[in-house]
Design a protein that fits this description.
The protein has 12 helices and 8 strands. It has 315 residues and is of the alpha/beta class. The chain has an 8-stranded parallel beta barrel, surrounded by 5 helices. Strand 5, helix 7 and strand 6 form a beta-alpha-beta unit. Helix 2 crosses helix 3, helix 2 packs antiparallel against helix 11 and helix 10 packs antiparallel against helix 11. The longest helix is centred in the middle third of the chain and has 17 residues.
Length: 315
């Protein structure tokens, strides 16, 4: 199969990236970075999450961030929802901000993302629930969110392998994805949470998942833990996948295994796609400038290759 001619990218750095930083980035700096990302040509931004501030203090300012950012109407804003309590807070804020006439027609956010793991052990360690318990709660979250007119993505972590259980059966992942779709998810994200996927595996499983889920958007979320992130993107492209999640500067990632790097860098992904003649609508130079600003804010080098080398210059 030939690769897609265009690709959609959701930038997850403001949530997935910032929440993994040891220090808390100030709200003002977050807002400036998010506003800049929203003007790079990106059309989807995961901005924050309605989680408990004492659990993830880096995202305790979710409501303030959403109330202060200035996002063009053509850019879809998404928030991660961990459970029904998180949805309660998100919907209350969504309605409160929507009632503020000074903001015009721009809603606080357009999409919600929910998540669970494909392995029992990882799910219990991550959210202290069984997979079945998580699905029951997420089914209620998705139904309520759809009733409010919000677009919904269901994310399946450890879809390609679990650091505790090893191999994860693709059929089990598909069963979970079908449950999420039936509950209202219009998009299913498959996460290589600890960077265990390889290109051959990616090609095989996405071919199965596409056959089993013909009526929803399938999104790949790869980590660069072992340097195979872009190779896995290429394998997914060859199965027809045209939706990806990534993080500017290669921010984020999972703390297991120790020493793991972050998500694939959005600028590395965009650079590769553009060199392949695949359209993204993203201004690579503007995106690199955002990663450079994040590097300055954090005060340390980031893992993005394109941030160091710059775009390819053909002379």
């Amino acid at each position: 199969m030939t690769v897609p001619q265009t690709v959609r990218i959701r930038e997850v750095g403001p949530r997935d990236g910032f929440q993994n930083e040891p220090e808390t980035i100030t709200t003002a700096r977050k807002v400036r970075l998010i506003d800049a990302l929203a003007r790079t040509g990106l059309r989807r931004l995961e901005v924050t999450s309605f989680v408990r501030g004492d659990v993830i203090p880096q995202l305790a300012d979710a409501a303030e961030v959403l109330s202060r950012i200035d996002i063009p109407e053509e850019v879809a804003v998404s928030v991660l929802i961990p459970n029904e309590r998180g949805l309660d807070h998100a919907l209350a804020f969504h309605e409160e901000l929507g009632a503020d006439a000074t903001r015009g027609a721009r809603p606080a956010f357009d999409e919600i993302n929910v998540f669970l793991s494909a392995s029992e052990t990882h799910n219990r360690r991550n959210v202290n629930r069984s997979i079945e318990e998580s699905l029951g709660g997420l089914e209620r979250v998705l139904a309520r969110a759809r009733a409010k007119g919000l677009r919904c993505e269901g994310i399946i972590s450890t879809a390609f392998g679990c650091p505790y259980e090893g191999h994860v059966q693709p059929e089990r992942v598909l069963e979970i994805a079908v449950r999420l779709r039936e509950a209202g998810a219009q998009e299913i994200g498959f996460g290589d949470t600890t960077g265990m996927a390889n290109p051959r595996q990616v090609g095989e499983v996405f071919a199965r998942w596409r056959d089993g889920l013909p009526d929803v958007e399938l999104t790949a979320h790869f980590h660069n833990t072992r340097g195979q992130g872009l190779a896995n993107v290429l394998a997914a492209l060859h199965t027809g996948i045209d939706s990806f999640e990534s993080s500017f500067g290669e921010l984020g990632g999972c703390p297991v295994p120790a020493g793991a790097t972050g998500n694939i860098a959005t600028e590395d992904l965009v650079s590769m796609l553009h060199e392949m003649g695949i359209e993204t609508g993203i201004d690579l130079d503007a995106l690199i400038a955002c990663a450079r600003r994040a590097q300055e804010v954090l005060g340390r080098p980031l893992g993005s290759h394109t941030l160091v080398a710059g775009p390819v210059a053909w002379g």
